[in-house]
Write the structure tokens for this entry.
Amino acid sequence: MKKNLKTSRFNTLMASSPLSLTSKPPSTALFHHRRTPLPTVRVSATSATTTTAMPDHHSPLEITGGGVDRFLPALNTRHLTYKPFPIIGWNRHLETIFAAFFRTVPDVKYCRECLRTKDNGTIALDWVSGDRRSLPPNSPILILLPGLTGGSQDSYVKHMLVKAKSKGWRVVVFNSRGCANSPVTTPQLQTASFTEDTCHVVDHVSSLFPKASIYGVGWSLGGNILVNYLGREHHRCSLSGAVSLCNPFNLVIADENLRKGFNNIYDRALRGGLSTTFSKHASLFEDAPDEYNVLAGLNPRTVREYDEAVTRVSLGYKSVDEYYSNSCSCHVVQHVRIPLLCIQAANDPIAPIEATPFEDIKQNPNCMVIVTPQGGHLGWVAGDEAPFGAPWTDNVAMDFLEHLQNGVSNNNDESNAEAS
């Protein structure tokens, strides 16, 4: 019954899609993006060399950044082979929607911890049940930051969690204010630029496990929040490394892109999630001294309209455009001081590739970006577990993080040997 319901919902969504399930790889201007390729690192099973993009049975990845020489050799070349799943992986909209509705959801039991912030807000952290007793206190810790309206219940979050847990990592999901049915105690919900909550979470986790190295992974808006934290708070950042996935980077560009053509279907879905969350806590905003437009927040026509009515007011911005321009993580990449891997899809309909700050990533020795030719948004239906299993990015992200952790462990071993 559950499978039939999912199928029905999927078919309803796809009924208005310009491409059917039996379509061949898209070639129209609407779905095929032509741009000058970056210098590409072509990775085969046995070697990795820098070339220009050329046709290949296995689509080449574009890899660049100031940290390429440091980080690329650490990645398993088998994981860097990108072969999109037939039919599904040929169209960015089909891949995005398929992953959202048909990707399996691993069974994970959580133990929730609620934190009270300085402004009396509430943050919900979901830890994996039993890990506190079963893992040593110095086990590496991974903080996961889901996307807009997302949380610990989402399939892509749980797949990453399971992958890290299988490697002996302790994992906690940072649910932004109001997400994943977390309590709301102030008139402020999830935002793209408020880094104080991230600081609070990282400091809290560090205080619980002072001997452990801490890392972060963020998706979509969660990736933007994470990179904003890394850049704006670089002087106090206590993370040892991070991975940003399908980050919109420039919210001005992303906003314009979200309201074009078929992308309106994502705008409708996101605004629906935002208004549903807002409706549960509207009374807090009605009594607030600030000028929230509660009616528009309850029934916004677009994500932009919701942000104008609610989000920008909670942060004190005069307009939604000011909020977007001041929330772009592309502006702070140059300030990142820890290892950062960014993974973007060239055909992402929600996080457009032209918003990615390639030049700043190239100039920063701590950064590297991998661009996959396909992937959609939160899709990446490729690799050994496609089409229903974990996204292709999980193995690459864990290769990167384990490389960083091994370096930390080796340094600790050397320090202990010198001390003895």
